[in-house]
Amino acid sequence: MTVGTIRVIEGGLLTTVQDLGRPGYQMLGVSPAGAADEYAFRLANWAVGNPPEAAGLEITLVGPRLLFTSDTLVALTGADLGPVLDGQPLPMWQAVRVRGGSTLAFAGGTRGCRAYLAVAGGIDVPPVLGSRSTDLLGRFGGVDGRALRAGDELPLGQPPPGAPPRPIPPELVPLYPEEVEARVVLGPQEDHFTSEGLRVFLGSPYVVTPQSDRIGLRLEGPAVRHRGRADIISDGMPAGAVQVPQDGRPLVVLANRQTVGGYPKIATVISADLWRLAQLRPGNRVFFRAVTPEEAHRLAIRHWQLWDEDQLAARVRQRTTRWQLTVAGFRYSLSLEESTEE
Amino acid sequence: MYAKPRYLVAGDSSLVVELGEGIDPAVNRRVQGLARLIRERGPAGVVEVVPSYRSVLVYYRPWELPLHALLGWLARVELYESDPGPSRLVRIPVAYGGEFGPDLDEIARFSRLSPEEVVALHSAPEYLVYCLGFAPGFPFLGKVPPEIAMPRLATPRTRVPGGSVGIAGEQTGIYPADSPGGWRLLGRTPLSLFIPHRDPPALLKPGDRVRLVPVSAREFREWEERARRHGPEALWDEVVVEGGEGGG
User: At residue B122, does pLDDT exceed 60?
Assistant: First the structure.
């Protein structure tokens, strides 16, 4: 059986091949890249029965127009950018069978910044340094290290045999509000800022500017003041690091960040919240709130447990609905367990 | 050099281990040693280590390796002097001035020296690769002799040709590919410093030593021609002097 391709009719604003990224080469200056919102990306792969590391498409604000050359199974997650399959709205957050010759287009949306398209078998471009992710800074990976454009033909991988579509537990489908609270751990260089600077950073709304991209969110808002010079001897830059250059405007680094940076980092966004920031569009707002490292660890562990395949499967099998009733002053709790057998 | 490392929490999945102040070869040697030790013998749950001038960023999985366990491991290895491993010497040909180094004359004016004297000073030291960053395969080399340590441009160029060799204060570096950049350009190498389809993809690694060898425009073209004929990675073997001591 031959596996089909996806033919790109229009590339959209910025559509790239991404997977979970390219760890292991940061010491050589290679950005980890990968899906900016790993949360939505992982759920898309889950839905079509792919392993987590299969490559898909990251679609930004204005979607592409894509032709599927053969029957396949797809799932679209993340921002609702108005997906339309052959003229009909395409339901998101679930696997959908697509006939060969079908066209997927996007009518546009108002909330969220990035949608993720997973296809059974994954996008099978050649891996570079262990990943199919597009590195837009290094200009390699994905399709020639660039965003998709008309005329590109994306090979699809062989779907894993017998891999069925899997439902996404509905309680895991996020909303993409226009204002989010991002929890941060202060540091590693919070001591480079005045106490007033820290107060301003934690107490002010910041607006996402149009200069934001896969490297990072550039924010506009009250300036965060440094104690002294706004540079440090360059050091490593983790995902979610909030750099503050001399102008006092915070920049939150995302997937395609540089591996080291020379601006002081006032705080680091926790892993459980970073994906929310990757879904903000220009004009959306973010507030920062500090949590302790202990709290951040607890939240990280809970966040990453979401991706454990057994736990996801258990969630799908068993859904519990609870009601609380108060009758004549007594409080009763009722629970209904729904079970789905495959 | 700090008597004790400073541990700086960087979110919930990474930790900065800072070993000293400033840009100092002795501190950087300890950085490379610690990075190697963690990479080779670190506890399960460490994902990646990123050495830079004076610190190591350790990425870890907090559900597999709690922070206190990572800190405990680090406290134990502090007792040992860690070996950064063999340091390689790499001899990089550089054509200086003219179309290759559009800022050479300005650096000469800044330093009140002739362009030839600037080239002699810039190509004299055996540089240390303190770290790689900014772009894939971009080496931060130091230190540049203070006479020619001109600060970077006020407004960066939108396009610097790949191979360009620049100065930013006491640092010098080489742009592996065309990119925007604000360093003062004094020459260009015909070598490709980063080849993504090769593993490892970068010519240089942290801790390597580098000598910049001035070549003529004609020699530059010859190197380029050899790269075209045999592939850019073929030149890598010519310039790496494994463990060499300045000869080669």
Answer: yes
Residue-level pLDDT at B244: 52
Please write the tens of the pLDDT for every residue from B155-192: 889 999 999 999 999 999 999 999 999 999 999 999 99
Residues lower than pLDDT 50 in chain A: 1, 341-342
pLDDT of residue B134 exceeding 50 = yes
So what's the pLDDT on residue A65? 98
Residue B245 has pLDDT above 50, yes or no: no
Residue B139, min C-alpha distance to chain A (Å): 8
Domain shared by A156 and A199, yes or no:
no
Q: Does B11 touch chain A (CB under 8 A)?
A: yes
Return the residue of B nearest to A128 by Cα.
B197
Half-sphere exposure of A4 (CA within 13 A, CB side): 18
Please indicate whether, in this complex, the C-beta atoms of B13 and A300 are within 8 angstroms of each other: yes
Cross-chain Cβ contact B136/A137 below 8 Å? yes
- Domain identity same for A164 and A183: no
B187-203 burial by CB neighbour count: b if 16+ within 10 A, else e?
bbbbbbbbbbeeeebbb
Residues A159 and A17 placed together within one structural domain of the fold: yes
Q: The domain that contains A204 carries what CATH number?
A: 2.40.100.10
Question: Do A167 and A217 belong together in one domain?
Answer: no
> Which chain A residue's Cα is nearest to B199?
A129
Work out how many domains chain A is built from and give that number.
2
Domain that holds residue A87: 5-171
Distance, CA of B199 to CA of A128 (rounded, Å) = 9
Whether A293 and B197 lie within 8 Å, measured CB to CB:
no
| Shared-domain flag, residues A66 and A148 | yes
Q: Chain A interface, mutation test: which of B6, B8, B12, most A Cβ atoms within 10 Å?
A: B12
pLDDT confidence of residue A255: 98
| Same domain, residue pair A25 and A66 | yes
Is the residue at A331 inside a domain? Answer: no
Domains of chain B: 6-77 (3.30.1360.40), 89-241 (2.40.100.10)
Q: Residue A322: its pLDDT value, please?
A: 62
Long-range contacts at A91-95 (CB < 8 A, ≥ 24 apart): A93/A43, A93/A47, A93/A168, A93/A170, A93/A173, A94/A47, A94/A165, A94/A167, A94/A168, A95/A47, A95/A48, A95/A49, A95/A120, A95/A165, A95/A166
Which residues in chain B have Cβ-Cβ distances shorter than 8 Å to A140?
A: 136, 196-197
Residues A45 and A139 in one domain: yes
Q: Give B-chain residues touching A300 at CB under 8 angstroms.
A: 12-13, 62-63
Closest Cβ–Cβ partner in A189, A261, A293 for B12: A293
Diameter of chain A by CA atoms?
69
> pLDDT value at position B247?
37
Contact B22 A304 (CB under 8 A): no
Query: Which of A149, A171, A193 marks a domain boundary?
Result: A171
In this prediction, residue B248 carries a pLDDT of 33
Residues A284, A221 share a domain: yes
Looking at every residue in chain B, the average pLDDT score rounds to: 93
pLDDT band at B120 (very low <50, low <70, confident <90, very high): very high
On whether residue A330 sits in a domain, the answer given is: no
CB-based contact B50 A141, cutoff 8 Å: no
